Amino acid sequence: MFQSPGAILVKLGPLTIRWYGLMIALGFLSAAHAASRLARRWGLDPDRVVNMALVAFIGGILGARLYFVALSWDYFSVHPEEIIAIWKGGGSIHGGVIGGLVAGSIYCRMNRMPLLTCWDIGGVVTALGQAIGRWGNFFNSEAFGRPVPPDFPLKLFIPPEARPASYENVDYFHPTFLYESIWDLTVFAVLYFVVADKLKPFPGMCFLLYLASYSVGRLLIEPLRTDSIFMFGMPAPIIVSALSLVVAVIGMLILYLKYQSASQARS
User: Fold this and answer.
1) 267 residues of the chain, pLDDT tens digit each
2) What residue spans define the domains of the chain?
3) Could you tell me the pTM of the whole model?
4) Torsion angle, alpha carbons of 136, 84, 123, 221, to 10
5) Cβ(187)–Cβ(127) under 8 Å?
């Protein structure tokens, strides 16, 4: 059984350190370290890649929050003071990927770095950052799934004040944060240790494979969630994940044909 010890790690006078922020920071540091190592393997300047990762991280935080606020505008229009309260949780990974991609791409263009190769590195290590960052949801008692019986093999205890209105008398729920964390960690391990070097000659493929893999995991896990934001009568993450999967598959097909044509032209 999983049970959060609470959202606050420690209070030092006026300073409050929250588990959510700590897990996001640990996710970034781990991803940046992996990006540095992968950059060395691929013959890129690791310092510039880490700088790109920092810029992408800041863009990702902004993108994740803006995306979440936009989809939850009915609430934030009434509570505008909470728009900047990112320490309480409330961010969208899809928005984070978009924001990070835009910010990282601008940095790459300004510093004349190979754009698609940097996207590949970003895709590989983002999966690691997501795997760690998901534990912030655990400490905030959020992003959990549907109710499960007390004898369910994996269960998450949610305190009464954090339960959905229709489940006030239910104690245990699917630990969907854990499911996604494990999925993301698996995606990272496969990409980093098995796939990345094989796909290095084909820039862009690694990123699209990350996007497709993450989307598949989200499509499998999201139906278990109880807190999805809806769009057009369906959970927004399912719609966006399905679109992302389609874009990734089409993109991989286009790149495959492009690289195959280039190979034939050389021969």
Assistant:
1) 999 999 999 998 888 899 999 999 999 999 999 999 999 999 999 999 999 999 999 999 999 888 888 878 888 888 788 888 776 666 788 899 999 999 999 999 999 999 999 999 999 999 999 999 999 999 999 989 999 999 999 999 999 999 988 899 999 999 999 999 999 999 999 999 999 999 999 999 999 999 999 999 999 999 999 888 777 778 889 999 999 999 999 999 999 999 998 888 776
2) 2-266
3) 0.91
4) 50
5) yes
